[in-house]
Amino acid sequence: MGQIKIYGVKGRLNPIKETLSNIIHSCMVDALEYPLDKKFHRFFPMDKEDFYFASERTESYTIIEISMFEGRTIQAKKQLVKLLFERINNKLNISPQDVEITIFETPKHNWGIRGLPGDELALNYKVNI
Predict the structure, then answer these.
(1) Under DSSP, is residue 30 helix (H, G, I), strand (E, B) or coil?
(2) For 98, phi and psi rounded to 5 degrees?
(3) What global pTM score does this model have?
(4) Among 30, 31, 41, 62, which is disulfide-ready with 80 (CB 3.0 to 4.6 Å)?
């Protein structure tokens, strides 16, 4: 399971939402063998006055927070981060300097999904990648 939040300046984020969502999902699929039909993304476009960031960043500054079940290897998570930086830069021309990614992992039993604790779900994909 994965839930993804994306934050950015409204004027920059809104026009690229669909493309960015597709990029993020392709990275999840390639790095974590995530199912093609599992896409849970939420966008948080922010007014400039509500989004403070370091002076070395531009208005393209984007934060990506990924919450997922624990169990992926360090190598798989590093591959995910690497792919995100590469594809966002190549397809949207957003520099890695302007992208920050955080992965939050929690035990399956800390999730509630479809009326069940996450550790009682029958998944159609592997988590231990």
Answers:
(1) helix
(2) -100, 10
(3) 0.90
(4) 31
pLDDT score at 70: 92
Torsion angle of C-alpha atoms 5, 107, 103, 43, degrees rounded to 10: 0
Residues 59-102: tens digit of each pLDDT: 999 999 999 989 999 999 999 999 999 999 999 999 999 999 99
The mean pLDDT of 42-53, rounded to a whole number, is: 96
Question: Is pLDDT at 124 greater than 70 in this prediction?
Answer: no
Residue 128 tokens read as 């231990």
CB environment 72-98: b (16+ within 10 A), e (fewer): beeeebebbbebbbebbeeebebeeeb
Q: What are the structure tokens assigned to 18, written together?
A: 């669909």
CATH superfamily membership of 1-115: Macrophage Migration Inhibitory Factor (3.30.429.10)
Quick one: which H or E segment has residue 78? helix 74-92
Cβ–Cβ contacts within 10 Å for residue 117, how many? 13
Q: What angle (nearest 5°) sits at the alpha carbon of residue 37, between those of residues 35 and 40?
A: 95
Per-domain boundaries in the chain: 1-115
